[in-house]
Each structure stands twice: as structure tokens, then as C-alpha cells.
Design goal:
alpha/beta, six-stranded mixed sheet, 11 helices, about 40% helix, binds adenosine-5'-triphosphate, binds magnesium ion
Length: about 350
């Protein structure tokens, strides 16, 4: 799959733009604060229904305007699709595929597959477990509607259970109704855990291969799923912690507390990894995602690489560029670095200057 063209109006600092992209590598370069990330963000919104940087749609609309529009034309093997996103500063956004408005943005999953690497993605390695869960959830939602549904239901039931736990603190008789929520929580939670187990095992295998490529076989990456109910079933853990949950007024075990650990040569990258190692591990996980989407959905996603090369040494930069030859890639950089330069002959090059995107070659 690849993006043929993208049109923007009043999206962040981009007043109007219509950009035709190449099937292969597209290099977007320009100084800081000119709109490179904004451009990638608009594509990501058409893929997942939301920004990778903000939950607040109002920020996406150009200062002084009320609405922003994004239109993306996609070419699949034997069909094409059009996605229109209509972002309003004071109302919910509307998204349509081939002119048909979607009821929920989750219906968008599967129309445009993207894998993004942005500086924020380092939080995948560095930050709290919630970032790793978010990563796993976004990927699995792109791949499976069953997962997406189970996750939505789980979060809904969890909220209701937590409310009930707080009410039980005031009136203990309500405890008799807890089993209703527990049954559903176990049903959806167990499904989520099974999906995540398989996904992380697969991710680990593929990311380890990619990491070996980029690090010239110097480093061995592994990713280990750490369910909060480790060692016993989710149901057992949930039932054994009921009294504690009532005391705390929240649910202490379940997929909402899961984590995954990234190890390089057996050591936790979050604790022991250098900046470059952390970045390489995050990039390897992202490249592994491409392999998984390709295997599971039979589709080569569009790769969005935002400022990925900084912090990687020259050798790693070149190795990375070598890995991305087969899929449409949109890569941003502030100058045309060495590694990108060696690609420039084969790539489409765009300059971004104060929100104006111009093709140079
Ligand atoms: N809603 C908005 N309306 C107008 N301008 C905005 C809006 N939101 C952000 N901007 C502007 O967009 C610019 C940032 O764009 P962007 O993040 O795409 O920069 P960049 O080219 O990726 O820079 P860097 O190389 O530093 O990452 C900033 O100058 C910011 O003020
Ligand atoms: Mg940027």
C-alpha cells in the first residue's frame, strides 16, 4: 500500500498543500519548527483517527481558523481508497472513507496501515509501562477488530468495577454484585492477554533480527511480556485480591497493569541502555511491526520516520536506511545527512519552509 497524494488545509502551520508522494523513499527536510512533523502527523491521523502528539483536536487547527482538512489518496494492490478527515476546533472530528462517514474512528483501522517512529517513541523504552501498553494496543488494534473490541469492553467494565469498589467501601452489601463485573473483566481480559502474549513473542523474534542488522550483530535484543497476573491465571489473581481492591478502590491486577521489558544482551535497556541503544531498540521494534503487519494482514504499511537518524552513529544510520528499501517511507530530517544523501538519488526530496512544502526532485 502507498499514499499517492495528500492535501491539507489549515492543518497546524500548513495553510494549503497538495503533495504527490513517491512509492519508495520520500525525504522531507527543512529547519526546525517549519512543519515536517506536522506533515507526518496529518498522515498518522488518517491511519489511526488520532494524533500521535496530542489528544486535543483544537491544537491541530491552524491558529485563527475553525477547521482543518486532510485528504489522503491511497493505492492498494488492486484498489484505491480516499480518506477525508475534517477537524473542528470546537467539535468532534469527522472522518470519511471513500465519502462514507465513519461512526467511530476505530472503524478506520485497516484502511491505511502506518508504522511511525517519532522522538516521542523513545518513551516506549524510557517511560512508564503505560507507554508500552499503548504501543502494543495500537498495533493489535490495527491488526484485529476482535482485540480492539475486547479492549474497549475491558476498559468500560474496569471503570464500572472501580466505581463499584469505591461504593462497596461505603456499603459492604454491594459486594454481592461484584461478581457480575468480575466475570466480564475475566472474559475480555483473558482474550487481551492471549493476544498480547502472541504479539510480544512475535515482536521479540522479529525485532531481534532487525536489531542485529542495525547493530552489525553486536547486540541481541529481546522483548518479554510481563502480565500483571504472571504466574497464575488472571481470574485467580483477580479473585485473590478482592479485599485489597475494595480497600484501594481500584483493580490491582489485569491487562491495564501489564508491561513488557526490552533487554539488550540480557540487560534492561530502560535502565542500562545508552541513548543510541534505546533509539535502536525502539526503531527495531517499529521495523518488526512492519514485518508483523505484512505477515498478518498481507500488507506493506507506510513507514513514517520522524527525525530518526539523530543519536544514531553513521554506521547505524546507513544500516537503518538499508532496511527500509521495500516500502513507502516518509522520512524527515533537518539537513540532508550522509545516510539520507546516499538515498537522495533514488528518493523524492521535499523542502519544508514555514509550512510550505515544495518538491525539489
Ligand atoms: N495549530 C497551529 N497553528 C499554527 N501553527 C502551529 C500550530 N501548531 C503548531 N504550529 C507551529 O508549527 C511549528 C512546528 O512544526 P513541526 O513540529 O512540524 O516542526 P518541525 O519542522 O518538525 O521541526 P523540528 O525539526 O524542530 O522537529 C511551530 O512553529 C509551531 O508554532
Ligand atoms: Mg519535528
Amino acid at each position: 500500500m502507498y499514499i499517492k497524494d495528500i492535501s491539507l488545509s489549515n492543518f497546524r502551520n500548513i495553510a494549503v498543500a497538495k503533495t504527490c508522494l513517491d512509492k519508495g523513499v520520500n525525504i522531507i527536510y527543512g529547519p526546525n519548527a517549519n512543519g515536517k512533523t506536522n506533515f507526518l502527523e496529518s498522515i498518522y491521523i488518517c491511519s489511526t483517527g488520532r494524533s500521535h502528539r496530542t489528544k486535543n483536536d483544537r491544537e491541530l487547527v491552524r491558529f485563527g481558523e475553525n477547521e482543518a482538512h486532510i485528504r489522503v489518496n491511497i493505492q492498494n494492490e488492486s484498489s484505491s481508497d480516499r480518506i477525508d478527515a475534517h477537524i473542528r476546533s470546537k467539535d468532534r472530528k469527522g472522518i470519511a472513507v471513500n465519502g462514507i462517514p465513519l461512526k467511530k474512528s476505530s472503524e478506520l483501522f485497516g484502511t491505511l496501515y502506518t508504522v511511525i517512529f517519532s522522538p516521542e517513541d523513545l518513551s516506549l523504552i524510557k517511560d512508564s509501562p503505560s507507554q508500552r501498553r499503548r504501543f502494543i494496543d495500537i498495533e493489535l488494534c490495527q491488526l484485529s477488530r476482535v482485540y480492539c473490541h475486547s479492549l474497549q469492553q475491558y476498559m468500560k467494565v474496569l471503570k464500572q468495577r472501580n466505581n463499584l469498589l469505591k461504593n462497596i467501601q461505603k456499603d459492604h452489601r454491594l459486594k454481592d454484585t461484584l461478581f457480575v463485573w468480575d466475570k466480564q473483566l475475566v472474559e475480555f481480559g483473558t482474550k487481551i492477554i492471549q493476544f498480547r502474549e502472541k504479539f510480544v513473542a512475535d515482536l521479540s523474534e522479529k525485532a531481534s533480527l532487525r536489531h542485529r542488522q542495525i547493530s552489525s550483530s553486536m547486540e541481541e535484543l529481546s522483548i518479554i511480556y510481563m502480565p500483571s497476573s504472571e504466574g497464575s491465571s488472571f481470574e485467580e489473581k483477580l479473585l485473590s485480591s478482592v479485599e485489597r481492591d475494595i480497600f484501594m478502590g481500584s483493580t490491582s491486577h489485569g491487562p491495564h497493569r501489564d508491561d513488557a521489558v526490552f533487554n539488550i544482551n540480557g540487560n534492561d535497556v530502560r535502565i542500562y541502555g545508552s541513548q543510541g541503544q534505546q533509539r535502536t531498540a525502539a526503531v527495531s521494534a517499529k521495523l518488526a511491526e512492519i514485518d508483523i503487519i505484512n505477515e498478518e494482514a498481507g500488507i506493506k504499511p507506510v513507514l513514517l520516520l520522524d527525525d530518526v537518524l539523530s543519536e544514531l552513529d553513521k554506521k547505524r544510520q546507513h544500516m537503518l536506511m538499508d532496511c527500509i528499501s521495500e516500502i513507502q517511507t516518509i522520512i524527515t530530517c533537518t539537513g540532508i545527512e550522509d545516510a539520507v544523501m546516499s538515498y537522495a538519488g533514488r528518493a523524492a526530496v521535499f523542502n519544508v519552509d514555514n509550512g510550505v512544502i515544495k518538491r525539489e526532485k
